[in-house]
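Bug #77: duplicate submission created two jobs. Keeping one. Sequence:
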Amino acid sequence: MSRVARVPSKLSAGSRKTTREPGKPDVIDATAIARVAIREGFDSLPVAHPAGPKLNVRLLVHHRERLAAQRTAMLNEPRWHHTTSGPSS
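Kept job's structure:
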């Protein structure tokens, strides 16, 4: 089972400052956080536990995304059959 840890921003601030680039720094932030987790020891970092409304919203969004994907698959299946089983002359 996966575990989500909270990494305090002050632990990764130094690494992020030395590798700034223009634009959205998601890759830089992710790398800095991964380095902190390795350096500090993943088990020593506090565990993130979403609860209350945040958890409920996340579960609802996940369920909605699954339903949308199922609907799309169901709508695309007849189209696929139509294109593959049409007249072959």
